[in-house]
Each structure stands twice: as C-alpha cells, then as structure tokens.
Amino acid sequence: MRQRCSWHLTITRLVPSVPGGRWLCAIAIFLVLMSAFWACGVFDPHVPDRQSGSAGAALFFSVVLAYTIPVLHYISARTCDAIAALVPSLEAGTAGLAGLQRRVWHKPRAWFLWVLGIGLASGLAHNLLLFGSASELAHGFIRYPYVAAVVVGTWLTWILITLALAALLDNARLMAQLGRATRIDLLQPHRLRPIGTVAVLSTLMVVGAMAAFPVMFLDRELSAMAYVPGLIAMAIPMFLLAALPVWPAHRRLSRAKADAITELNQRIDAVVAGAGSPPAMMADDEALATLAPLLTYRQELMQMSEWPVDLGVVTRLGFYLVIPPLTWVGAALIEKLLDTFL
User: Fold this and answer.
1) Which of 52, 198, 238, 294 is the most exposed place for a label (fewest CB within 10 A)?
2) Please, are residues 53 and 42 in contact by the beta-carbon 8 Å criterion?
3) 113 and 222, same domain (yes or no)
4) Rg (Cα) of the chain, in Å, rounded?
C-alpha cells in the first residue's frame, strides 16, 4: 500500500468538534491573521510603501483563509455523505465505503508534494510579478516588516488555496469514478444526485472565495496585478469542479435514456403494426391496453433530466455565479463615488 500523508485532516482539525465549530474556526483564523498583520504595521496609515504593504491585500488574506478552511471541512464532510449515499448502488456494494471516504481526507504523499510545490511556485511568481525583480522583493522583505507580512500572506494564501482547490478536484475525480461505476436506474435517477450535490458545493466554495476579492479594492493604490492572477487561477478550477464530477454520470444517463426510448419506440411500432390501421387499433382493446403503459413510460423518460443534479439547485447556482461580478461592479462604483465626493 502506498504511504499516505494526512495533511488534509490536519488542516481541518482546526475546526473544533463542537456545535458551531466551523464558525469558531473562521473567527479565530481571521482574528489571528489580522492581529499578525496589525503587529507588523500593515494597517499603519503612514507606511511609506502602500503598494507593497497593502492593507486591502492583508484584509483579503484574512477573509479568504478564514472562509476557505471551514468551508473545505464542510464540503469534505458532505462529500463523505454523498459517497455513503452512492455506495449501495455500486457493483462492489458497501465493502469499500471506508476506503472511499478515507480518500476524501487523506491524500498520497506524492500528491501533497506536487500540490505544495505548485502553491510555493505560484506564490513566488506572484510576488515577483508585484515587485518586478527578486532583488526588490528581497530588499522589501528584509527592510520592512509590513512588506514581509504581505509577502508571507501572499505565499500562505496561494499555498492553502492551491491545496484546497487540488483537494476538491481530487474529490471531483473520485465522484466521476463513482459516476462511471454506479448502476443506472432510469426509474430512480435521483440516486445519482449526490454527485451533483458535491459538484455544486465545490463550485460554490470557489464562487465565495472570488466574491471576497473586492475587499482588496478598499486600497485604491493597489495594482490590478495583485488580484488578476488569483481570479484566473480560481476561475479555471471552478468550471472543472462544476463539470468533472457530473459528466460521466450524465453520459451514462443520456445513453441509457436514448437506448430505452429506442427500445420503447420499437415495441410501440410492433403493437401498432399488429393492430393494423389506427381505426382498427381503436377497436382492439388488447392493443390499447398494451400501448398505453408504453406511451406513458416513454413520456416519463423523455421528461427525465439527463444530468444528476436537481434543477432547482442548478438555478440557484446560476444565480450565485453572478455574485462575484456584481460585487466587483459594486466596489468599482463605490470607489468612483468616493473619488467624486472626497
């Protein structure tokens, strides 16, 4: 058996096992980070380099990290619930339930090292992009505590967000595998909805993180390069998290539905051909009794959704997807008003 690293469980242990534990974790993370930034002078209005020691960026780091860890814990728990709901429909039954749920919380060591490397490299690249050169980055880091705090905050945010997104993507791959192995029951397609639930929750987590970006707009001297890389890095996984888990189940549902409708059409054609012309068939009670349930079943199949997602949930997801752009527009309008009246 491959050696596994329980980093994911370690992070989510920050959430205490008490009622409201996720809220307590979020508040604690926010207060600790804000206190650290405050102690380093990030929120001092007289700092000489507001661009490198951005108070808006520090506030964003505190908000997004306080949001990410508790929500990651919540989605991981819901993913385990979804797996438990799907396992009875698998060919293997419930025998592998513990192993499947363990994969949600524990990742292979090689996976962890790769993801950590990507987060470190991304944080370094972003810091270099902001400072222009390694020498300027090193100079600001060594000379000014508030610059060092924002540099470390940038790195920490990239690392933890990368780890969280990679964990969600790995869990999405797991749900896609289950979608390929789950028995398809056209009479009870709701049994596949746990797959769609995981996809929607994972997508909403990214939407929530993206909605926090306007916090940085409070610092009007901040360059667009402070937030554009992060937005791009989140937007791509967001679409993958929405599509990857549900696509295999969708293809299987679509194929099974098309095959069933084709078979029903053949049976309907056979009944009609045996009864003769429509006037003769109207007088054939046996043919009508045979035909009626076939037509009803075909109508039900044609109305059945080919996606393992509740349509009401999809509608709400579409609404939530417009929240980040609306918050960005609102922040821009507020900034314009402040420029006008101040």
Assistant:
1) 294
2) yes
3) yes
4) 27
Helices 109-131 and 228-243, axial angle in degrees (round to 10): 150
Q: What is the pTM of this model?
A: 0.83
Backbone φ and ψ for 324, nearest 5 degrees, come out as -55, -50
Per-residue pLDDT of 196-218, as tens digits, reads: 889 989 998 998 898 888 888 77
Residue 27: inside a domain: yes
Taking the C-alpha atoms of residue 243 and residue 173, their distance in angstroms, rounded to an integer, is 10
The residue among 161, 165, 198 whose CA lies nearest residue 179 is 198
CA–CA distance, 128 with 32 (Å, rounded to integer): 26
CA 257 to CA 250: how far, in whole Å? 10
**What does the alpha-carbon distance between residue 169 and residue 55 come to, in Å, rounded to a whole number?**
31
Please write the tens of the pLDDT for every residue from 264-292. 999 888 877 776 656 555 556 677 788 88
- Do 233 and 278 belong to one domain? no
Dist. CA 219–CA 338, nearest whole Å: 12
Contacts of residue 28, defined as CB under 8 A and 6 or more positions apart, other chains included, come to: 14
- Structural domain boundaries, residue 35: 4-246
Residues 238 and 266 reside in one and the same domain: no
Query: Buried b vs exposed e over 311-332: b needs ≥16 C-beta within 10 Å?
Result: eebbeebeeebeebeebbeebe
**Are residues 213 and 227 in contact, defined by beta-carbon separation less than 8 angstroms?**
yes
Q: Is 227 a member of any domain?
A: yes
Task: Output the six-digit token pair for 297.
Answer: 């079943």
DSSP-H helix ranges across the chain: 7-12, 21-39, 55-86, 97-105, 109-131, 134-143, 145-181, 193-211, 228-243, 247-275, 278-282, 285-303, 311-321, 323-341
Instruction: Name the domain count of the chain.
Output: 2
Strand, helix or coil for residue 203: helix
Residue 140 resides in a domain: yes
Residue 216, CA atoms < 13 Å, CB-side half-sphere: 26
Alpha-carbon 78 to chain mean position: 12
**240 and 261 co-located in one domain:** no
Task: Please tell me whether residues 199 and 279 are part of one structural domain.
Answer: no
The structure tokens 């008490």 sit at 18
